[in-house]
Write a structure and sequence with these properties.
This protein has a single domain, classed as Aminopeptidase, CATH 3.40.630.30. It is built from five helices and seven strands; from the N terminus they run αβααβββαβαββ. Keywords: Acyltransferase, Cytoplasm, Transferase. This is Ribosomal-protein-alanine N-acetyltransferase.
Length: 163
């Protein structure tokens, strides 16, 4: 009865473009201490080798809201996850996995062989997600992530073989 009166929000993953650069920058700034600007997102969205997928919550009572995104660059038979972020209030609901699953399906359809990403070694939630998707650590970049306080953090370089 409650679902009838208050239906659950519908989740939709779709392409996002340069016209949503401000929203992407807002989500990124909320997720990372070193954020990218709307101009950065607009420039990346204009690159023909880059695709962006956004996750929107469609609610009965409010307009659709962009709550997460993944940004991917494809070069020949390899791809790189440039960034993925989910708004803080929407974390812990599997939205990051949904975004990654859809991005990886698209890469597979495009016959991409391998997908790479970099992740802060100390971000256990993200590392766990990527490992659960089959990514393996293939390298480490020491002192890669600058921190406001304390020493710089290491980046794990991870790869998923899609074929």
């Amino acid at each position: 009865m409650i679902d009838f009166l208050f239906p659950r929000p519908r989740i939709v993953i779709e392409a996002v473009g340069p016209d949503e650069a401000d929203a992407l920058a807002d989500i990124h700034a909320e997720a990372f201490s070193r954020s990218w600007s709307a101009d950065d997102f607009a420039a990346l969205s204009g690159d023909r080798r880059v695709f962006s997928l956004g996750l929107r919550r469609h609610s009965t009572f409010w307009p659709p809201r962009l709550v997460g995104f993944v940004l991917v660059r494809v070069a020949a038979d390899e791809a790189e996850i440039l960034s993925i972020a989910v708004h803080g209030a929407s974390r812990g609901r599997g939205h990051g996995r949904l975004l990654m699953d859809e991005a990886l399906r698209r890469l597979y359809r495009e016959r991409v062989e391998s997908c790479f990403l970099e992740v802060d070694r100390d971000n256990r939630t993200a590392v766990g997600l990527y490992e659960s998707l089959g990514f393996e650590t293939v390298g480490e970049r020491k002192s890669y992530y600058r921190r406001d306080e304390g020493p710089a953090g290491a980046a794990l370089v991870m790869r998923l073989k899609l074929r």
